From TrEMBL:
Belongs to the pectinacetylesterase family. It comes from Prunus avium. The gene is LOC110748665. The lineage of its organism: Eukaryota, Viridiplantae, Streptophyta, Embryophyta, Tracheophyta. This is Pectin acetylesterase. Keywords: Cell wall, Cell wall biogenesis/degradation, Hydrolase, Secreted. It comes from the Eukaryota.
Length: 381
């Protein structure tokens, strides 16, 4: 359990959570050979794309540090146990709490006389970094910027900027876990996710914080640079993508959102892949193919990039000890996620692992997730 640190100077920068509370992080100090190495992990938790959804969010732990747990369990990639996290256990490990609703990237304020919302994710990111620099981050030798889900998307959005704060001699790399959200049509051929992202970008004043080279190449649709598949080629530091080819969040909200399946034909398939009919399975396989194609150029040509794309039906694998590094963890070509990420970061060997398609995989913990576990997972969004 690691205690919360409020960023006391955040108000001077105008960095506030949705409800106006101060942003926060959890820091567990490194030791020994890792004392000057830093791992920063963005917390995930979806997005809000309207005033109503953001007002609702502001009254929860997703929009206010007032409602957050003041102590966080550090496990998986954040563990300080060498047998559970062999490559990063003795680093300085930081969890950046998520309370802005737009992957730490917005910069706007909403006021209508009765309601006040701060869309200040970019400022929260800057305030936390500035708070950490004098605590040792400014003298980092090695650094890894990581995150899961919406936090995994944050890694794409902030990877280039992260390097500017660190010494030029530092080894800086970035990792996204379950953050490669696809710009994909749903089963009704509608751009549901693209429309959602456009609303997020517009509401949060986010466009100016997207990569300038990317937005310049997408003049008519700058919001597309919120999607990793368009931003990836503009990222300079080495980047590692950890994702399921059948990511449960994307399956349920991008590929088959409720609006595209009003009759509920996909309900059984959503809760149990073994209940999918042949046509539904084919749709899932096409989604997997599109994800791999979207990563294709980087996969083929990047010598410094890394991939671990497995076929588990889950969402987020880096902070769960079971999936990160355990006796029965998911494996691709007999390598766990922790081993693959460590091999990539320390350049021990190339890591570009793509699993065979469902249902051939046998090492997944959540290959067929239970109804209860899946519903609990989805309620957090």
């Amino acid at each position: 359990l690691v205690n919360m640190t409020l960023v006391r100077n955040a108000s001077a920068l105008g960095a506030f959570c949705l409800d106006g509370s101060l942003p926060a992080y959890h820091l567990h100090r490194g030791f020994g050979g890792g004392a000057r190495n830093w791992l920063l992990q963005f917390e995930g938790g979806g997005w809000c794309n309207s005033i109503k959804s953001c007002l609702d969010r502001a009254n929860t732990r997703r929009g206010s540090t007032r409602y957050m747990s003041k102590w966080e369990v550090f496990s998986g990639i954040l563990s300080n146990n060498a047998s559970l996290n062999p490559d990063f256990y003795n680093w300085n490990r930081v969890k950046l709490r998520y309370c802005d609703g737009a992957s730490f990237a917005g910069d706007a304020v909403y006021k209508n006389g009765t309601s006040l919302l701060y869309f200040r994710g970019q400022k929260i990111w800057e305030a936390i970094i500035l708070d950490l620099l004098p605590k040792g981050l400014g003298q980092a030798r090695k650094a890894l910027l990581s995150g899961s889900s919406a936090g995994g998307l944050s890694s794409f959005l902030h990877c280039n900027n992260f390097t500017k704060y660190l010494p030029s001699t530092a080894s800086v790399k970035c990792l996204s876990d379950a953050g490669f959200f696809l710009d994909e049509r749903d089963i009704s051929s509608n751009h549901t996710m693209r429309s959602f992202v456009k609303d997020v970008v517009s509401l949060h004043g986010l466009e100016k914080n997207l990569d300038e080279n990317c937005t310049a190449s997408s003049l008519n649709f700058p919001e597309l640079c919120f999607f990793p598949q368009y931003a990836l080629k503009f990222i300079t530091p080495p980047f590692f993508i950890l994702n399921s080819a059948y990511d449960v969040y994307q399956f349920h909200h991008i590929l088959v959102p409720p609006s595209a399946d009003p009759q509920g034909h996909w309900n059984r398939c959503k809760l149990n892949p073994a209940a999918c009919n042949p046509q539904q399975l084919n749709t899932l396989q096409e989604f997997r193919r599109d994800m791999i194609v979207a990563m294709g150029l980087s996969y083929k040509y990047s010598r410094r990039g890394g991939f671990f794309i497995n076929s588990c039906f889950g969402h987020g694998q880096s902070e769960s000890q079971d999936s990160w590094f355990a006796a029965d963890s998911p494996r691709v070509h007999n390598r766990t996620i922790a081993e693959a990420v460590g091999d990539w970061y320390f350049s021990r060997r190339a890591t570009k692992e793509i699993d065979c398609p469902y249902p051939c995989e046998t090492t997944c913990i959540n290959l067929i997730p239970s109804t209860q576990a899946l519903l609990q997972d989805l309620r957090s969004y």
